[in-house]
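Entry:
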Amino acid sequence: MKVTESTSHYDNLDEMSVQDLLENINKEDHRVPEAVKLVIPRVTALVEEIVPRMQRGGRLIYIGAGTSGRLGILDASECPPTYGVPHDWVLGLIAGGDSAIRKAVENAEDDPNQAWVDIQEYGFNEDDTIIGIAASGTTPYVIGGVKRAKSEGLLTGCITCNPNSPLSKEVKHAIEVVVGPEFVTGSTRMKAGTAQKLVLNMISTTVMIKLGRVKGNKMVDMQLSNAKLVDRGTRMIMEATGLDEQTAKKLLLSEGSVRKATEYYYKNK
């Protein structure tokens, strides 16, 4: 039996008090970071191959179904505003297309050929990386996608929560975060989903730092898409240059990013 479908350590959930339910869910959640810690060497190996490929013009593409697909889309969609990168640098594709983000599309994950069709809408080059995300490691959409990508010479990886899954056997870098049975038997949006999110955070954040999109510990290329981010950028410039708030904000808005504003200041100081 798949670990992700093993019977919960808890029973009679419907008879528990609200506090007991919450405390036991939290108890199970504590297992996740420890499981993620065990796979850091595997994540390291994957990221160290992704970075030079992206430096040569490759992209990072996540493919998944259901919760796994949505988590990939979430991670990908947050890279442009956070790091000021083009929208096609990191892509998240989900079985069933964009409509599946909000509403499940029946049987969409069962077609092993569709992921490659979806990838083709964006084209591909030899430096792209395809990461399949599937808690069970058995999703045909994901397996078929990475298998075809591998045959085309692309770098492949996966994030799964079952050891020795069919998905793991089809990729170069298999990240298997074994978090054990879910609190609600088989509900992989819980611990498995949390584990996948943590690994995705690690991958994209580390890649972006190594691509030079962070200076010190600051998001110097973030998009100035709302007042909160303009204020944050202003404070970054004030800290970096010693300028007063009004001058720093004016410089930020004229240059368009913290990086450009700071570089302009020191170049013309």
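The mean pLDDT is 95.
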